[in-house]
Write a structure and sequence with these properties.
The chain is mainly alpha-helical and 122 residues long. It has one domain: Four Helix Bundle (Hemerythrin (Met), subunit A) (Up-down Bundle). It is built from six helices and two strands; from the N terminus they run H-H-H-H-E-E-H-H. Strands 1-2 form a two-stranded antiparallel sheet. A hairpin with a 2-residue loop joins strand 1 and strand 2. The protein starts with a helix and ends with a helix.
């Protein structure tokens, strides 16, 4: 929920011009349970909307100044902040999941990685 709120505020609203309706406190106050499928669907939808906005930006928009969450930033900085924020929280989620499961969940072993290593050795 927090990642969706952040993406929506910075990209969909901040760069895309949609109304900023974020209720940040609710992102952290929700105690659920919320079905996993629903959260995944919400995240995919939000990321998809943000990608459409980013794909449609002209070069000028990346250099233009925007006021988002009280900060004056360029369009490019807004995109980079969302990217960084998403990666940070994704890392936290993976770390806590590994701790709770007590085993290597192979998050860092991407499909095709072994084949790529074998190809490089030749």
């Amino acid at each position: 929920m927090h990642l969706c709120g952040n993406i929506r505020q910075w990209i969909i609203s901040g760069l895309g011009g949609e109304p900023d309706v974020r209720e940040r406190e609710k992102e952290f106050g929700e105690r659920g349970p919320i079905p996993r499928r629903m959260l995944i669907a919400q995240l995919k939808t939000t990321v998809g909307e943000a990608c459409e906005i980013i794909d449609g930006l002209q070069e000028e928009a990346l250099l233009q100044q925007f006021r988002i969450q009280g900060y004056d930033v360029s369009g490019l900085i807004a995109v980079l902040r969302v990217y960084e924020h998403f990666a940070y929280h994704a890392g936290q989620i993976m770390y806590v999941t590994k701790l709770k499961c007590g085993k290597d969940l192979r998050f860092t072993h991407l499909p095709g990685e072994k084949a790529q290593r074998l190809t490089r050795k030749r």
